[in-house]
Amino acid sequence: MELTLLGTGAPEGLPRPGCPCASCATAVGGEARAATALLVDSALLLDLTPGPAFAAARAGRSITGVRQVLLSHPQNGPAMEFPAGLPAPGRVPDGRELSVISGHTVRAMALDAPGTGYEVTSSDGERLLYLPPEAAPAGFAAVPGPYDMVLLDVLGRPDALARLREAGAVGATTDVIAVHIGHDTPPGRELHRRLAAAGARTVPDGTTLTVGDYHAVPDLPRRTLVLGGARSGKSVEAERRLESFPDVLYVATGGTREGDRDWAARVAVHRERRPGSWRTAETVDLLPLLAEEGPPLLIDCLALWLTHAMDSVDAWDDAAWADGGAEELRALMAGLARAVRETSRTVVVVSNEVGSGVVPATASGRRFRDELGRLNAAVGDECEHVVLVVAGQAIPLRG
């Protein structure tokens, strides 16, 4: 089954006419996108893009052989041109199947937003799933196995991808293509970096893909260390890396602080931001979690783990520190780094980058800063990806 993407953008396109935002300003060349529309084997057209005949011609295709035109959503962008001679566009009722003259079978999928998703199966058995913008499946019938290709609004609805993974509809070999890309997505290379972190990619308008052909999916790191200063956006970056995966265990190392309203408010913000399907464990006992099998872990953060570890060896007391406390702490840190190395789970770890600021005025403050630097370096050595977040921007240091 051959698929040509006549457009890959949001209904309004990218850039939006007259919009001065950074995403629109950088949407030039291959990053400029018309409204998403899919041409399947030159016979089935899913959704409309402005000037579909010209869009097909630019891609080296023709729409004269189209036998069915199906709409997936209300098409609330700019007015669409509907070329004469094509079948009238329609929508398949949810749950119904349609046999197209070309030999394709189309099944309509119910969504949790206005519109319809389409599962397309070729006469040779290749299967693709196409979802409209801002939509996720409302439920699943029996899934015979992973789709060969899935096209959806990856950044707008990462939970849709998580649901598909949980149901077995997206597997390790599924080619996940991001479409409906608009000006709410990050500009330039950041778009592609975020998609890769979700196991997805995007392609320029006019690209033709062969459904079922092997394509190397983005290499998802099993271990990632996310560093950053206060309010840099490091926790948001860490959460973003796992929001398209189901059943994540969020490990909060800070615990609760009785009577501290500011701390309670910070914890509440983090909880509200996390997907509802995630579970939370408030613990600093990380080694058992890293040693056992299970869903991905998001550990936030190493600085609070280190505070507890330093408390446990009385590292704040100079005499205790000199009398074996330093060796005890280093053993705990080495044990954590070793557990990160040996874990079979997907792990994203958050930590503070504290070595670039003012030198602390106290000996204990300098001790904490130095030990956190050592811990960050030890854990970073065991991670495939290391990212530094500055002013909300993720800078890859490794991977």
Provide a brief overview of the structure.
With 399 residues, the chain is α/β, with parallel strands linked by helices. It has ten helices and 18 strands.
Write a structural description.
The structure is a single chain. With 399 residues, the protein is of the alpha/beta class. The protein has 10 helices and 18 strands. It has helices spanning 22-25, 52-58, 158-167, 189-197, 234-240, 261-273, 286-291, 302-312, 318-342, 363-381, and strands at residues 2-7, 37-40, 44-46, 68-70, 97-99, 105-109, 117-121, 127-130, 149-152, 175-178, 208-210, 223-228, 249-252, 279-282, 297-300, 347-352, 385-390, 393-398. A 7-stranded mixed beta sheet has the order 14-13-15-16-12-17-18, with helices on both faces. Strands 5-6-7-8-9-10 form a 6-stranded mixed beta sheet, with no helix packed on it. Strands 4-3-2-1-11 form a 5-stranded mixed beta sheet, with helices on one face. β3 (44-46), α2 (52-58) and β4 form a beta-alpha-beta unit. α8 crosses α10 (363-381) and α9 runs parallel beside α10. The longest helix is centred in the last third of the chain and has 25 residues, at 318-342. The relative contact order is 0.11. The model has no long low-confidence stretch (mean pLDDT 89).
Main attributes?
single chain; alpha/beta; elongated
Give me the number of helical elements: 10
Work out the strand percent: 15-25%
As a whole number of angstroms, the C-alpha radius of gyration is: 25 Å
How much helical structure, as a percent, in the residues?
Answer: 25-40%
Give the low-confidence spans. none
Q: What gross morphology would you assign?
A: elongated
